[in-house]
Amino acid sequence: MPFRPDHIGHFPTLAGMRPPRIARVIAWMIVIAIALLGVTMVYVPWVQTAAGRGQVVALDPHDRVQSVTALVPGRVERWFVTDGQAVKKGDPIAKISDNDPELLARLAAERDQVHAEIASLESARAVASIDVNRARTLFNEGLAARRDYEQAQIRVADQGAKLAESRAKLNRIEVSLNRQAVQIVRAPRDGRIQTLNAAAGATLVSAGTELATLAPEGGTERVVELMVDGRDIALVRPGRRVRLEFEGWPAIQLSGWPSMAWGLFDGRVRSVDPSAMPDGLFRVLIEPMPGTLAWPGDRFVRLGAKVRGWVQGETVPVGYELWRQLNDFPLEFGTAANKAEEKSMDVYKKKKK
What we know:
This is RND family efflux transporter MFP subunit. Keywords: Membrane, Transmembrane, Transmembrane helix. InterPro entries: MFP (IPR050739). The chain crosses the membrane at residues 25-46. It comes from Sphingomonas trueperi. It is built from six helices and 14 strands. It has 353 residues and is α+β, with helices and mostly antiparallel strands. The protein folds into three domains: 44-61 and 219-319 and 326-334, Efflux pump adaptor protein, beta barrel domain (Elongation Factor Tu (Ef-tu), domain 3, Beta Barrel); 65-98 and 183-215, CATH 2.40.50.100; 103-181, Helix Hairpins (Orthogonal Bundle). The strands form three sheets. Strands 1-10-13-12-11-14 form a six-stranded antiparallel beta barrel. Helix 3 packs antiparallel against helix 4 (146-181). The longest helix is centred in the middle third of the chain and has 38 residues, at 103-140.
């Protein structure tokens, strides 16, 4: 038998119960919240992003931090700079002296001796050449044996071999002299001395030992080096828009709603490495987005500053994104996004050309 409202009189306890007003309000609020949450999950858009962390680097390798190394073995006799000092191209950084102070003098004396040997061998070869011509003439006239003519030729060849050996020895001495003469290490370009290898001043150094690190200043074209997980790298392609948060720069980030973020800067994917780094992450280079707010200057964001970035992808409902995150699914491949990406890629390639 179905229950009707007039049957409530048969249940006096139930009829006497009156829920408090606050309980009814809370119940209605919960019902409305669930309904709004359902509508939000279905109709509110969310921009998917591939997040990554990285740093600011110089695009040109010559503008990155460089190591200044010793050109010859020896020990550092004198430092011409200190940590943090600005230098110009060609300014001296350190002077290296050989362990043997008489090495240059002995090499010069050996070079003079080899020069004398070469002069003597050239004279001897010239005389031997004359003997060959004389022996040939006598042999043709029948006044000398073939053996004498052949021995004269052998003497010329022997003198030529000795002359070539002496000249090779002279070249080795010249190389040693040139290397030992380059004892003052100079700055390869304008910049600032970042660190000095102080231990090199008290110990022996070999050719190639790092003496200092030089950080170029000013005029560098900066890009951001992001490390992105391999799960999301398939959607990261040149031309994609990127939102960047620089270290030390106040920002509020809402990755799903870029228009509501504050303090972030726009970038564009310049290139993606074809293979992963040893830690399994892929390196993505980000350049400034033309026509947007310029990145902070060198004074605020220096080379090596940490950066967080979000490469923007497909726009999906919030509910789908929540479901994707809970199930650890990759980003969405959408037709609309792919068409927009292809158009962006065409524009990007034309600008590159």
